[in-house]
């Protein structure tokens, strides 16, 4: 069984992502000289070059020798680029990597805890007890995923999951990504159930012969009448009646 993180987390759009916009500048100013931060900025700069043909794209110049004022301009360009990507709900590896590092700083400092929908943890525990394997597939980096599950209001629940996947294996709207995950965990695609709140992801998974249920959560994008008719819909993990593993 594989989950999209958005189907598990409560208030992800209301807390996690606004935190990035509110704190990215402070984070960059604090960590700028660190190698990891420079790697993140380098990835974002290369992504910005690839995006240069897109309307509204924000370039990220290199730092020159003009001192602190120039550095602040570059940092502001990174902030503007991050906010531009987030406004388009982009899932680039460069963006997700920086987001993960900002969240790591927040979680380890105790400024944040992940909050899950109340049906999630009991259901996952039940499935694990029945012998099922549970994996996470998210646009957020594996590192960010582990932060969320390691610093939650339920405590450290990393032990409930058998593995994690992110966009390094492929984007969630590409069917080949699901085939690669199946190969990685040694399972045929038709023995996998994927839970997501995004129908484009559901469609890609189905193309790979993966079983799908669309999770309807508060604040999600609305579904069309055709989507409501076509997909299996659940509002809680407790609605899934799954057979125990042999």
From TrEMBL:
Substrate binds at residues 138-139, 172. Keywords: Amino-acid biosynthesis, Cytoplasm, Hydrolase, Magnesium, Metal-binding, Methionine biosynthesis, Nucleus. Pfam families: Hydrolase. It catalyses: 5-methylsulfanyl-2,3-dioxopentyl phosphate + H2O = 1,2-dihydroxy-5-(methylsulfanyl)pent-1-en-3-one + phosphate. It is found in: Cytoplasm; Nucleus. One of its GO terms (molecular function) is magnesium ion binding. One of its GO terms (cellular component) is cytoplasm. Pathway: Amino-acid biosynthesis; L-methionine biosynthesis via salvage pathway; L-methionine from S-methyl-5-thio-alpha-D-ribose 1-phosphate: step 4/6; Amino-acid biosynthesis; L-methionine biosynthesis via salvage pathway; L-methionine from S-methyl-5-thio-alpha-D-ribose 1-phosphate: step 3/6. Its EC number is 3.1.3.77. The keyword Signal does not apply. Monomer. Bifunctional enzyme that catalyzes the enolization of 2,3-diketo-5-methylthiopentyl-1-phosphate (DK-MTP-1-P) into the intermediate 2-hydroxy-3-keto-5-methylthiopentenyl-1-phosphate (HK-MTPenyl-1-P), which is then dephosphorylated to form the acireductone 1,2-dihydroxy-3-keto-5-methylthiopentene (DHK-MTPene). HAMAP family: Salvage_MtnC_euk. Belongs to the HAD-like hydrolase superfamily. MasA/MtnC family. This is Enolase-phosphatase E1.
């Amino acid at each position: 069984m594989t989950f999209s993180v958005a189907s598990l987390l409560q208030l992800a759009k209301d807390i996690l992502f606004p935190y990035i916009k509110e704190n990215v500048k402070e984070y960059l100013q604090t960590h700028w000289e660190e190698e990891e931060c420079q790697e993140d900025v380098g990835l974002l700069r290369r992504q910005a070059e690839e995006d240069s043909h897109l309307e509204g794209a924000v370039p990220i110049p290199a730092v020159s020798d003009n001192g602190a004022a120039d550095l602040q301009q570059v940092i502001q360009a990174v902030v503007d680029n991050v906010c531009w990507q987030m406004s388009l709900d982009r899932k680039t590896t460069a963006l997700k990597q920086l987001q993960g590092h900002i969240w790591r700083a927040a979680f380890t400092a105790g400024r944040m805890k992940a909050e899950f929908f109340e049906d999630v943890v009991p259901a996952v525990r039940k499935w694990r007890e029945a012998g099922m394997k549970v994996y996470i597939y998210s646009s957020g980096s594996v590192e960010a995923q582990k932060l969320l599950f390691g610093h939650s209001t339920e405590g450290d629940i990393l032990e409930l999951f058998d593995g994690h996947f992110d966009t390094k294996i492929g984007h969630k709207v590409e069917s080949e990504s699901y085939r690669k995950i199946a190969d990685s965990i040694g399972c045929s695609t038709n023995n996998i159930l994927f839970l997501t709140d995004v129908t484009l992801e559901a469609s890609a998974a189905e193309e790979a012969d993966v079983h799908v249920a669309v999770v309807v959560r508060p604040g999600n994008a609305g579904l069309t009448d055709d989507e409501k008719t076509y997909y299996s819909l659940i509002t809680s993990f407790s609605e899934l009646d799954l057979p125990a593993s042999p």
